[in-house]
Write a structure and sequence with these properties.
By secondary structure, the chain is an alpha+beta fold. Helices cover 43% and strands 15% of the residues. A two-stranded antiparallel sheet has the order 1-2.
Length: 65
């Protein structure tokens, strides 16, 4: 499922194709539980994107070098 989110870091809109079902996404939108329980199959980076719109690449630009 393609998900678009505006990054809380840069304000840019990013789209990520994430392996989730419509039911999982509906549960997430309805706040039916912890994101880790709703999406146990997703990586930390994918869950972060859903929560904040921030991609791994954006985090890498501000992280320690």
């Amino acid at each position: 499922m393609k998900i678009a989110r505006q990054s809380q870091l840069s304000g840019m809109t990013h789209v990520m194709d994430i392996d989730i079902s419509p039911e999982q996404y509906a549960n997430y939108c309805l706040f039916t539980g912890a994101i880790q329980k709703i999406f146990p199959n997703l990586s930390d980076d994918e869950r972060e994107f859903l929560l904040t719109g921030i991609t791994k690449e954006e985090w890498d630009t501000i992280g320690p070098k």
